[in-house]
Amino acid sequence: MICKNCNRTVKESSIYCNYCGTKQKPSRIDIFESNMNSTGVNFNSGFLNLGSFVETPSWKYYVQEAIKLIRENEPFEAIEYYSKAISLNPDDTQLYHDRGKTYYEIGKLKESVKDYDKSLSLDKNNFNARINRGISRCQLGLFEESIEDFSYVLSIQPDSSTCYTNRAIAYFELEKLALAKADILKALEFESKDPINLYLAGEIYYRLGEKYVAVSFFEKSAERGFSRAANRLNKIKGL
């Protein structure tokens, strides 16, 4: 089967194109709603059936199905269910966050940021949405904007290791190495054995010209099974 959007080959059994995400044929929610709209159909999904009339499931039903699909590694279909839940309950900050996180998992970063924006417009202190928006922004190269998100959370929750780690990454990309160093050392105060924190510390110190300190961090990270640190050590040592 050829994708109607990107013209790449897609398995006949696939509902979505693995490359661009375009729907190729009806998904489970399409079939479900088509059946629901048919007259005289009996459902056993926990919602009311009165003769030929079937009451629309609540938004919670669609959320439960979305969660199941994520567990089954079916994020594209999960997004459809989240979208249906949002159409039934458009003022729930968590729904936008959860759909945004699912968009992130399939690499649709702009869509994820848009959902996090909406989530935060409904609740500016949804810290998960703010942290995850910061991560998505950072991966989009919006480093200053991502720093704003992490700094906001840290102003209220100063013990967030995740924020220190990710803000360090943003500062590092902006060549603000002193700030990156301060943040990664703070992250290590909370998560001293985290291999990613140790690896990032190594990269920051290496960029600062402190090679021996950097190697020490890379070694500690590699000892904890982080392959990128091991590869970095081999490169530094010329192996």
Descriptive report:
The structure is a single chain. The protein is mostly helical. The chain has 3 domains: 1-73 and 83-89, no CATH class; 91-158, Serine Threonine Protein Phosphatase 5, Tetratricopeptide repeat (Alpha Horseshoe), CATH 1.25.40; 163-239, Serine Threonine Protein Phosphatase 5, Tetratricopeptide repeat, CATH 1.25.40. 64% of the residues lie in helices and 2% in strands. Helix 8 (161-173) packs antiparallel against helix 9. The longest helix is centred in the middle third of the chain and has 14 residues, at 75-88.
Keywords, separated by commas or semicolons:
239 residues, mainly alpha, Serine Threonine Protein Phosphatase 5, Tetratricopeptide repeat, 12 helices, 2 strands
In a few lines, what is going on in this structure?
This protein has helices at 28-37, 59-71, 75-88, 93-105, 109-122, 127-139, 143-156, 161-173, 177-190, 195-207, 211-223, 227-236, and strands spanning 49-50, 53-54. By secondary structure, it is mainly alpha-helical.
Number of domains: 3
Query: What share of the residues does DSSP label as strand, in percent?
Result: under 5%
Give the proportion of residues in helices: 55-70%
Helix count equals 12
Query: What would you call the structural class?
Result: mainly alpha
For the secondary structure, the number of strands is: 2
What is the rounded distance between the termini?
45 Å
Overall outline? globular
Query: Which regions have little confidence, pLDDT < 50, spanning 5+ residues?
Result: 40-53
Strand order across the largest sheet: 1-2
List the secondary-structure elements in sequence, H or E.
Answer: HEEHHHHHHHHHHH
Mean of residue pLDDT? 90
Main sheet: strands, sense, barrel: 2 strands, antiparallel
* Rg measurement, Å: 23 Å
